Amino acid sequence: MSADITLLESDVETSLRSTVREMLADRCDPNAVLSAYEGDRALTASLWKTVAVELGLAGLVIPDERGGAGASVREAAVVLEELGRAVAPVPFLSSAVEAAIVLREGNSALVEQVASGERTAALLAPFSTAPDADLPRMSVDGNERLSGRVTSVAGALESDTLLVAADTVEGTAVYALRTSDVAVASFVSLDMTRPLADITVDSVPGEVVVPPNSGEAAFRRALRAGAALLASEQVGVTAWCLESTIAHLKERKQFGRTVGGFQALKHRLADLFVEAESASAAARYAAGALAADSDDAAIATAVASSYCAEVAVHAAEEAVQLHGGTGMTWEHPAHLYLKRAKADEIGRGSPGHHRRVLADLVDIPAS
Amino acid sequence: MEDDTTAADLRRRVASVLAEHDPATSDPLEFHRARFDAGLAWVHFPEGFGGLGLARELQPFVDGLFEEGGAPDNNSKINGIGLGMAAPTILAAGSEEQRRRHLRPLWTGEEVWCQLFSEPDAGSDLAALGTRAVRDGDDWVVNGQKVWTSVAHLARFAILIARTAPELPKHQGITYFICDMTAPGVEVRPLRQITGEAEFNEVFLTDVRIPDGQRLGADGDGWRIANITLNQERVSIGGRDTPREGGILGMVADTWRQRPDLRTPELHDRLLTMYVESEVARLTGVRMRQKLAEGKPGPEGSALKLTFARLNQELSGLELELLGEDGLRYEDWTMVRPQKVDFTQRDAGYRYLRAKGNSIEGGTSEILRNIIAERVLGLPAEARADKDIPWKDLPR
Fold first, then answer.
1. Do B290 and A363 touch (CB under 8 A)?
2. What integer pLDDT is reported at residue B265 of this predicted model?
3. Is the CA virtual torsion A273, A308, A121, A222 positive or negative?
4. What number is the ipTM of this complex?
5. Residues of B classed as catalytic
6. What are the Acyl-CoA oxidase/dehydrogenase middle domain coordinates in residue numbering (chain B) (predicted)?
């Protein structure tokens, strides 16, 4: 069940982690991230180019023979931990994980373009869509033109390609659309580091990238990977919150002593550490189970999704609280993590939703 | 198993013990002695003391082979303190003679051990202990009271820490002894607990004479050696992976499956939340063992103990609520002295009450949080008023 999946990090993963971390330390400081809230999206484009092309991570999970790096979602999980730790505003999850996994299932040449970072894609589904939820579907007419509307889509603003499920007479296919052909209405997002948009598609030509019958499975597989790997992003968010709060409490003095020496605060941080370690094991297991195509992948995903989301929110809330007045300010980065954590909690299914999925998987019926 | 030749060698050694002492027909004691003498009791102990000087991580492999071969149990449930705490301490700090005298009958289960550490006024602040040992010729004369002592009523020997230099600060004046539980002046009284049972004891020590040859380590070195004992607790957590739904979770889940009449939406979500937390704790344990197997011990031992204490308490509480009116019935308040703690064969009410001890025994959750905060996270230590003051001058 779990004995055959290592929860430790391989040397390759450690090296990948430090590469990504160093680049982000250099290129993605919190002040620059903060500019996303003022509508400045300059950082996103240049940072994504670095991640996707210079580090070659756009095609991380795409096979070698199709232009990718031939790695697995385990390595992608490591990247997401680091992106979470930096609240980096890049569409790695939407393009390099979710869209890449959909495209992997078909024969479209688009997969090479996404692998190289030449094109960036996103799934046309609300960010809140859970892997087992009803899929948003476009209608398709006799001329392969698609129509429909999908709200709260992540990655759309950064993408030139949108992947959408549509029912044909032969079953559900996945079509690719040009983002330039659709109406993209961005709105003010709770998490401006992963801005969302409402998409209206009105008789737009599409290209079949995953054929009918395997389209729905491909879409769901991608959503499941999204849910499972969001847990790793949440582990990264948690790690930053814990580390920065510890650092603050070692510095801050009140009542003539370092506040980190007060037992009431130490115990809260100890509890948070326990949660962070646990979340990291759960997220690593979910990524490992998915990468190994284990029978346990669905349970592992439900467990990690419900657990890590709540831990990240708790960590971010504690970070704001334990930074005191500073934690409430716009200039301190804690709020960026709180917003990311809370939005991620809703992303790809809420903890409560994943617990109900788990209920079916482990035979704990509601009634 | 990284080293195939070691694995093959261990297989051969185990097969040889099993062949020469068929578990089905041999006297269990004779079998245990043969296994000890073959170095297969604790493979990481030195040769001659039940081991082969191999890596500790190989022990579960050996245990598994013996289990498959139908080997009898060496009283391990009752002698947990002896096997887990006394033996490694005797190995680390004992003289050659002490090791030779005690390790073999300890491992074979002939001699059960208990631990005379905690006192009524020295629990979490163990170094404040007041049991006195005064030198008298070749003996030490011990007076004091210990408490929360499991299996004292069954034990032949005890590991004991006592104060030998009250004029020194509290950590410096402690010495470590091996106490013969049959010596005159040792009185064991059952200590009845909230379950109604007396799983633990109080031990009164009145003019107990301990020969100096039963001192473990140097006079005054007791605190350092006691920490060797206490650190074993963390190392001893989990040699093998536990199954999903192990422990109390499995019992609550089974009740849920068998009793649809008890289900409510509110209890459903609480059960699922604890299901997730239990599964995550299990995975954290799996990772800890994977790290240990690579020789990288982490701080997860304290973290896992905290987690399991909390989960056991929450799950056992949920189980009673789930049972509704059945949860209002308790099995038996008669005072008995159980030989071991067994959560599985008991009613939910017992589990609920007994689990409350999980956050106190073996280090309270509060102390474990301090350990994590100070030793792992590097936060400042609590201000200490007693560190450099002679023990005899401490306010009490």
1. no
2. 96
3. positive
4. 0.93
5. 233
6. 114-208
